[in-house]
Design a protein that fits this description.
alpha/beta, 8 strands, eight-stranded mixed β-sheet, 291 residues, Rossmann fold, globular, single chain
Amino acid sequence: MSDSAARDRDAAETESALSHPPVAPDASAAYGSHPDQLIDFYAPRDGRTGAPVVVVLHGGSWRAPYDRQHVSPFADFLARRGFAVASVEYRRGSEIPQQRGSGPVAGRWPETFDDVAAAMDALPALLARELPQADARRIVVTGHSAGGQLALWAAARHVLPEGSPWRLSAPPELRGVVALAPIADFATAVALGVCSGAVGQLLGREEDFGERAPHVDPAVLLPTGIATTVVQGTTDIDVPQAVAEAFVDAAAKAGETVGLTLLPEVGHFPLIDPAADACAVVAEELAQLAW
C-alpha cells in the first residue's frame, strides 16, 4: 500500500471511530480533587450481577485535547457485552504549545502517573459504591495507544524501581491486561517518531529522559507475572506494529510470554470503534481473561 493510500485509510478509520456520539455513563465518581480525576462507570446492559470489570484508559498521546469522551462508545460497547466498565480520566499535557506552531504537549510529569495510580488504588471502593453488581475480584485493564502504555504500567507497579512513589509492595489484583496498539516500547517509539515525538514530551528534557524512562517504560518493567495480551493492527501508521513486537520481544527476553494478536489490514482506531470487526476481537480477548 502506498503512503498516500495508507494515510487515506487511516483518516477513514479515524473518522469512523470518532463519529459515534458520546455515551453518558451510568455514574461518575471523583478519585481526587482535580477536575480530571474522575472515573465514569457503565453498568452491564444485560443487568447481570457479578460482572467482571474492564478498566479503560483512553489514548490520545497523553495530550489534553483527547479525553475519555472519545472512548465512551467503546465503553458502552463493552457494557453491552456484559462487562462492568470503569473509564478513567487523568491529567494530560498542557493545552499550551511548547513553541509557536507546535501542538499541545504530551503528558504531565508526574501528574499523569499520579492519577492512574490513584485511580487504580481507589477503584475497589468506588466500584462497591457505584457498581455494586460488579465483581471487583475480576478486573482486566485495557488501554488504547498511550492508554495502552498506561494499562501496562498499571499492571507493573510492583516491579517499579525501589523508591518510586507509585511502587506497590505486591502485584495488583488483576486478571490481566489487554493493551491495544500500545506505546509499549519507548526506544522503538522514539526511533519511529510515534505520535509526533510524544514519548520525548512525556518524559521531559533530554537530561530527564534516562532518569524517568525506567519508571514508566513498559518494555523495561518486566516480567510482571500478570497475564498480558497485545492487540495490534498490521496497517497501523500511528503506532506501528514494530512497537508492539519490540515489547513482546523484551518480555520474552525477561522470561515472560506476552500474547500478540495481529489483525491484518487493520489500522489504529478500529480497535476502539464499535462499528469495526476489530472491536469485537478486543471484546473476545477481554473475555478470555475476565471469565
